[in-house]
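REQUEST ID: PR-0412
SUBMITTED BY: lab tech R.K.
PRIORITY: routine
TASK: structure prediction, single protein chain
INPUT:
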Amino acid sequence: MQAEQIPMNPESIAVFIPIVAIVMGIGIGMLAIWSEHKRKSQLLEQNHRERMHALEKGIELPALPANLVSGSNGPSTATAAKSLRSGVMLTLIGVLLFIAIEQAGGSEGALFGLIPAAIGIANLVYAAILWQKEKRGEKPE
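STATUS: complete
OUTPUT:
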């Protein structure tokens, strides 16, 4: 007894593409949330074990890390280097998108490539302002 094969036409395949995309998008989001939770719980468990060993041995408790469960690894304030990096990247991506879409024949659509370029230029201006503030010794906002 052999299973009957149903030929797949393009219309039925086109129905499955958005369904698969939505399911995979939600699955990837859930995986990211779960892995971040697992990372934080492992950090807390490791820190707890370390503190318990210190109490058992009678030594001074180690200080709690400031960013034990926060999402960032560094300072939460913006720095000129971060703004400069993102500004250069977005400006180049925007210019490349503009050129690529223009060459592909979409002169009206090519203007949308300038949106990331404008955001990149804004980041470069912000980086310059932060750099001047850091040079004067002021704390960036």
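NOTES: The two ends are 72 Å apart (CA to CA).
REVIEWED BY: pending
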